[in-house]
Specification:
With about 190 residues, the protein is α+β, with helices and mostly antiparallel strands. Helix content is about 20%, strand content about 40%. The protein has a single domain, classed as Protein Transport Mog1p, Chain A, CATH 3.40.1000.10. The strands form two sheets. A seven-stranded antiparallel sheet has the order 3-4-5-9-8-7-6, with helices on one face. A hairpin with a 3-residue loop joins β7 and β8.
Length: about 190
Amino acid sequence: MKHTIFIIGVALIVSAAFAGWYFWSAHSTTNTAAFDLSTTASSSSQQANAAPRTPPAGYSEYHSDVYHFSLFYPNNLTVKTYDEGGGAMTFIFQDTKTLQGFQIFVTPYIGTTISDERFKQDEPSGVRQNMADVSIGGAQAVSFFSTNPALGDTAEVWFIHGGYLYEATSLKPLAQWFSNIMQTWQFTL
């Protein structure tokens, strides 16, 4: 009985948090246009083998030797990786207390553009609103808003580099926060 009450209590807290996010996102100007990655610093496209970077205060650097990227993320986030098979991996950066987080799905990809078929495969909702061409670490990318049955409204940025498709996703109300993190992206060797 106590276990059931605990589960119901947690469900109510999570529901209230999402309702608050929904209310905030319905009244936020961030939701009326694609989130801005256009200010990505040119330093994010530094040459591979550049000197190690120093994260800003309150941030750590995540580095993937397999998928050849690094980025800075807030210290309050924990990082978990999930092998998806076939050379694909999901990286989850999250703080379960504040419900802040984002994920990066990486998979081998042949081609230089993201096909509609691939988009529909990975984004069954088919929603791509407020699309904008952006640059991530010097790679051509597209940012957009979408929806996900498990997450709700999302802010996403997809790009191809070095034979991999990168799909980075966060909650739509966190679009600016997520954009700031993605601006720190750097490709490495």
